[in-house]
Write a structure and sequence with these properties.
The protein is α+β, with helices and mostly antiparallel strands. The longest helix has 27 residues. About 35% of the residues lie in helices and about 25% in strands. The two termini are about 45 Å apart. It folds into two domains: about 300 residues, no CATH class; about 100 residues, no CATH class. The chain is globular and about 85 Å long. Helix 4 packs across helix 16.
Length: about 450
Amino acid sequence: MEAGSLGKLLPDLERFLGRFDDCFIRSEQRESLRCYVKGQLSDLPRKSIEPMALAADLPPRNLQQFLSLHHWDHAMLRDRVQQIIGREHHDPEAVSIIDETYHAKKGDKTPGVQRQWCGTKGTTDNCTVTVHLTQSAVGGAGRGKFRCMLDSELFLPAKTWSDDRDRCRKAGIPDDMVYRAKPTIALELIDRARRNGVHLGWLTFDAGYGKHTGFMHALEERGVMYVGEVPGHLTGWTKPPPVMLKEHASVRRKTPSGETIGRPRVFPRPKVLPGDMHKAKSVANLVKHSPVFTSQPWTTYHVKDDDGGPVVWAVKAASFHTKRERVPTWPHWLMAARHTLSGEIKYFVSNAPSGTPLEKLLQVAFSRWGVERCVEDANGELGFSHFEVRNYTSLLRHMIITAVSLLFLSRATASLRENKSVRDDLPVATGNQRPHPRYMERRTAEPAAA
């Protein structure tokens, strides 16, 4: 954000940050929050602690200690952000996303850093991974998308960090914080946001989370409606097999001495028939060979527009039963989407009711690109990945304050949109960051013209 634009918004920013004053004990800490947020909203090319502090004529140690040593309630600050979003930006059609971000780092002191897949570079590199819950809610007429970051948490690798408690203690990682799979972290973020009044109208996620059927089952137990991408090897049924609740004929044999041999079967279980008629099959196999898919044509839908023009996918959909504790679940949606130019095929599973319009499911399934802009905006505008910390508390507080800055940026942008007759997007990147492409979003997926 340019200095002139920020200057005009300073009174609004002061009122907004005043809503978080009770999270801090001393006035110096409140001023440090204001310095940090203004630094993130500034046009500095690098938004780590030192340049932000120097720009505010403060010793860098002040902001370092504000993040790492000062006693203030960062959990309350995070909760307040979620409460504001839940109360003032409620949208029943909001789309939330679970995803992770990769922060390339040098050295071995940053919490959670190790050589691993780094999505931002597309290769294996030294990086830290954080998991995020973000949301894109449709505002009033002419306001476009309202994007915000709800919550973030560090992914702690098992062998190099969680199992090395001495290394964790040096990085300020609590003893009760151990390795958790990314879907487990995602559920914690979802539970916390819902406790603070955030309505998750729809949730979407990529195949990295969709490959875990337990994650989808946990969402259903929480009453969260989702449309998630799944890998082609995920198994299930388009027609559920009969289920056996008890043994009808013994499959265990007795030896001449009277000893019973053979392993007892576990129930309930699908009824076993000759061949593989009732065997769960991969979604890729079902889409390719199941009559319920082969009997229907591909229907093309204009999903959105991007810099290259219209984005069109051909889609098939059918009822689908995932597997839970060996037996089929209640009916879900299985959608196969084929890109009309590249031929790429994506698979999506949803727990939405059977009467949900396919266009709505596609809108949610392909809205990840828009919600991912939350992290792009945080990186491009606010220097989200510029942190240079060696302490877990500092990293956590940096992520929470970034959510505060992004919430103000989104509110200010939405307010400016109301005064414009032509729709605008979030401010483009500043400094040495690349500007974001502008997207012309559509409220729902539309069937493509023949």
